Task: structure prediction
Amino acid sequence: MTHPFASALLRWYASHGRDLPWRHSADPYPIWLSEVILQQTRIEQGRDYWHRFMERFPTVDRLADATEDEVLRLWQGLGYYSRARNLHTAAKQIKQLGHFPTTLEDIKRLKGVGDYTAAAIASFAFGIPAAVVDGNVYRVLSRHFGIATPINSTEGKKEFATLAQELLPATDAANYNQAIMDFGAIQCTPKSPRCPDCPIADTCQALHSHTVDTLPVKLKKLTISTRHLQYIYIKVNGETAIRRRPAGDIWQGLWEPLLIENAPIPKMEGKLTLLRQKVKHVLTHRVLYADFYLLEADTKPTLPHDFIWIPEPDIDQYALPRLIEILIQEIRK
Result:
């Protein structure tokens, strides 16, 4: 028997659910692609990237056969580039398997696919009764059932996962999962939720105990660090020098000009111009401050072995961090 809470959300979803392109298909590939893109990305922005990927790579095999540079270049501007690398690796896993995995456990074996993404793909594509638990779900459940257990604690994750699974209608998992996520995004929003016209307001414990603004509870663990970067764009007879960033740091696999960090700028032949100072760029765990320089020279300076020289216009063919895009814009002014 369907829980009254689930029934109310399904009725709400029938009238208020979002019309999203990947919801018009049971093909796991576009569903999986949308879920990966929408991690850490707003739907308004993610929708455009989803269309671009589907146009460029209409099948998972086409994605698997692409180069990492192609994938990163198309991903450029979304940030969290490990998602793109994981997407590409998982596409190769699927191609080697010969088909998209069809069980919850096998879906979880794909690179970059965690519990939430696996449950979303399993329920949306295959009708498997697996409950999704994302930020929207945490918020709706914590408020409605008055749960103050921190959502990022081990205890909280278990408690919410168990409750979400108990509420899931086994025969309508896809619609219910979409309903509770949309409900959190549209109705039970983080700020200024629409409590006056909420269809489940009568049974919402947070509303009746005046704790809507304090739920869900999240432990504060994040430590923000600061880095100071000095980027030097080198111009020599229409060419510039870039290198691919290595593993083990931010922007792995993306390209950048000469970077000087924690050291003075070395003396090099040519005219050095400071373009901008302390350009702020915020990442999840750190804040970057960058100084942009332009070095114009007649001869190529000696650079580390991992640098390559390219015609300046060709830089648009390389996947760049957003911060370097800003530098390029300064150069072209």
